[in-house]
């Protein structure tokens, strides 16, 4: 039989993430709002349809939402890096840098 590592109950936190999509052909914009309970983060991203391609709004939604989620991930990694540095943790740039590159 295994025992828990600690007698403390597990900590459970809930973060609320809302994703808003708006389309004004040929552009789709995604806006993400993340409420951590301690603060709110917001990211935006866009997708633009080539005027020669058929209008397929689902594809624009997926691209814009995916890009906004990636941007939010980068924002969270930067926040964690800043918090780690504030506590005197070792340099973490090498491990996180590839995720921070602007590719969109």
CATH class: Alpha Beta
Residues in β-strands, percent: 25-35%
Indicate the low-confidence ranges by residue numbers. Answer: none
Which structural class should the secondary elements be placed in? alpha+beta
* Count of discrete alpha- or pi-helical segments spanning 4 or more residues: 2
CATH architecture: 2-Layer Sandwich
- As laid out across the biggest beta sheet, the strand order is 1-2-3
Helix content: 25-40%
Whole-number average pLDDT?
A: 85
Organism: Streptomyces dangxiongensis
Protein name: DUF1876 domain-containing protein
How would you explain this protein's 3D organization?
- This protein is α+β, with helices and mostly antiparallel strands and 104 residues long.
- It has two helices and three strands, in the order βββαα.
- It has a three-stranded antiparallel β-sheet.
- A hairpin with a 4-residue loop joins strand 2 and strand 3 (40-48).
- Helix 1 packs antiparallel against helix 2.
- It is elongated, with a radius of gyration of 19 Å.
